[in-house]
Write a structure and sequence with these properties.
This protein is 0% helix and 51% strand. It has strands at 10-11, 21-25, 30-31, 35-39, 47-55, 61-70, 76-80, 83-85, 93-94, 101-103, 114-117, 126-135, 141-152, 161-162, 167-169, 173-174, 177-182, 186-192, 197-203, 206-211, 219-226, 231-238. Strands 1, 4, 6, 9, 10, 12 and 13 form a 7-stranded mixed β-sheet that branches. A 6-stranded antiparallel β-sheet has the order 3-2-5-11-7-8, with no helix packed on it. The chain is elongated, with a radius of gyration of 21 Å. It has 2 domains: 10-152, Immunoglobulins (Immunoglobulin-like, Sandwich), CATH 2.60.40; 161-238, Macroglobulin (MG2) domain (Immunoglobulin-like, Sandwich). The two termini are 29 Å apart. By secondary structure, it is an all-beta fold. A hairpin with a 5-residue loop joins strand 12 (126-135) and strand 13 (141-152).
Length: 239
């Protein structure tokens, strides 16, 4: 059985779709005005919502995204069009309204657009409200708003992660130990995101706590390898 443990998205509300454009996620699910999408993934460098915007009209539209509000902050990256904006600020629009993302009639934006929760140093439960909207040729806001909330929830779906090798981790968010239980002996290797081997441990059958206190707070890839050569990797975040 294939177990998805790195990305969990929950759509909690849905309202009428925008008449002039449609926003969808990477799986083709429509993001509607008023939606709340919760994630806990640390695939690549952050918890990410990929999106595509389709122009549903017969004329060119000009689109931008405003970072409306946040409750506790945290670093957010927004990529839209050909530009990525790091550590975006509440009250600003991306791209700026005077140089918006231009979408021709019937066209859909290409790959690479995303919202990324990138607070690796001190990740915490947080809500971030965004507003898609349209502007005219002068950059003036002409409405057609689509508001949604991007929530980072470190506890979402993280109660237990079971690998295909019969190894169960209590969480992919770790502190100074990795708590796990294994049905058989195996080898565990921990790599940083640049592929450097940081730590190797022998895993025995049963429950155990692996000391990782010597590792810095960042994203890691944990690779489990069985005695017959089978292997599986799991991404974890050390707080």
């Amino acid at each position: 059985m294939k177990i998805k443990f790195l990305l969990f998205s929950v759509v909690l509300a849905a309202f009428s779709a925008n008449a002039q454009y449609t926003v969808k996620d990477a799986e083709g699910n429509e993001i509607n005005d008023g939606d709340l999408i919760a994630v806990n993934s640390f695939a690549d460098e952050g918890a990410t919502i990929t999106f595509f915007v389709t122009n549903d009209t017969g004329a060119t539209i000009r689109s931008s995204v405003e970072y409306v509000s946040t409750d506790v902050g945290g670093e957010i990256q927004l990529c839209y069009g050909a530009q990525c904006y790091d550590a975006i600020e509440v009250g600003n629009s991306y791209p700026p309204a005077n140089s918006p993302q231009i979408i021709e009639a019937g066209a859909t934006t290409g790959p690479g657009n995303h919202f990324m929760y990138n607070e690796i140093t001190n990740p915490q439960y947080s809500n971030h409200e965004f507003r898609f909207y349209l502007v005219d040729e002068s950059g003036a806001d002409i409405g057609n708003d689509l508001n949604f909330t991007f929530r980072y929830d470190p506890d979402l779906g993280l109660d237990a992660v079971q690998s295909q090798l019969g190894i169960t981790m209590e969480s992919t968010m770790i502190g100074n130990t990795i708590a796990l239980s294994s049905q058989k002996n195996a080898t565990m290797q921990i790599f940083d995101i640049n592929g450097r081997l940081m730590q190797t441990n022998l895993i025995e059958s049963g429950a155990q706590n692996i000391d990782v206190s010597g590792l810095a707070s960042q994203l890691y890839i944990v690779n489990f390898k069985g005695l017959n050569g089978e292997s599986q990797s799991i991404k974890v975040l050390k707080k």
